[in-house]
Amino acid sequence: MSAIIKPTNGHSGSPPAATGASRPVTVPDFLAARSRGTRLTMLTAYDFSMARLLDSAGVDGILVGDSLGMVVQGQADSLAVTLDEMIYHTRMVMRGCRRALVVVDMPFMSFQISPQQALENAGRLVKEGGAPAVKLEGGVRSAEMIRAITTADIPVMGHVGLTPQSVRRLGGFRVQRDEAKLLEDALAVEKAGAFAVVLECLPNDVAQRITNALKIPTIGIGAGAGCDGQILVTYDMLGLYDELRPRFVKQYAEVGRQIVQAATDYCREVREGQFPAAEHGFR
Ligand code: KIV
């Protein structure tokens, strides 16, 4: 591990793109990056080791996404993920992060009932998980929940377009094309006090026009290069999860294949008596 992660002055060794400094990235840094035209980078993490690796690579933000329901828990969607599970994963990620801004997803039914429920549960993510910021899905319909949370000074990232918690109503993970509705949603999220908004799975030109219409940064996933930043599910971009292969994912590594190869080699060597060798034991 120490060969991979090379900390400098207690922080990550890679150039900190959004802030221009080796200190932890803050919510105002996200807004400043938008004004400067610096592209923001975000990836998901669900545990200490992955968070530490991504943080050392200089990523600006880490999302503890409820996508963990699929890529970690093996469920068909994210709907069954609980608030207690999100708190558990947030604690692990927080221990691995020194610089990236950590944002934590509010899972399905942890905020939909009322602004009071949303605020109480965002408060639990902050107090019990250590979350610096939360994310919740929905535009106009979630605006009053975002307002309640931001009024308590908990930073909120919005999420419009394809909102995975709506997968059953949408009938699948589909591209969202109703530009008027998407713009109305994004503007509602901004007006309610969100500091950034994820735009998921919409046509590039629509995402570009929404980005132009907003003052807060847009973080795209399947929304083209016109957004202020990008996010991917780390398991997708590393080739660790192949149940779904969305068109918008670029696979940067084949870690899944390497794991299978390594485990195959290990099994063979143990069976053939090659491992452990003399240097792996004690005299
Ligand atoms: O849960 C998640 O990982 C997300 C990203 C797809 C943005 O919400």
In short:
This protein is an alpha/beta fold. The chain is built from eleven helices and eight strands.
Instruction: Give the biggest sheet.
Output: 8 strands, parallel, barrel
Global shape: globular
| Mean pLDDT across residues | 93
Counted beta strands: 8
Class of the largest domain in CATH? Alpha Beta
Helix content: 25-40%
**CATH architectural label of the largest domain:** Alpha-Beta Barrel
Which structural class matches the secondary elements?
alpha/beta
| Quaternary structure type | single chain
N-C termini distance? 26 Å
Order of helical and strand elements: HEHEHHEHEHEHHEHEEHH
Q: What count of helical segments does DSSP give?
A: 11
Small molecules bound? 3-methyl-2-oxobutanoic acid
Low-confidence runs: 1-13
CATH homology superfamily of the largest domain: Phosphoenolpyruvate-binding domains
Strand content: 5-15%
CATH topology of the largest domain: TIM Barrel
Spatial sequence of strands, sheet with the most strands = 1-2-3-4-5-6-7-8
Instruction: Please give the radius of gyration in angstroms.
Output: 20 Å
**Count of discrete domains:** 2
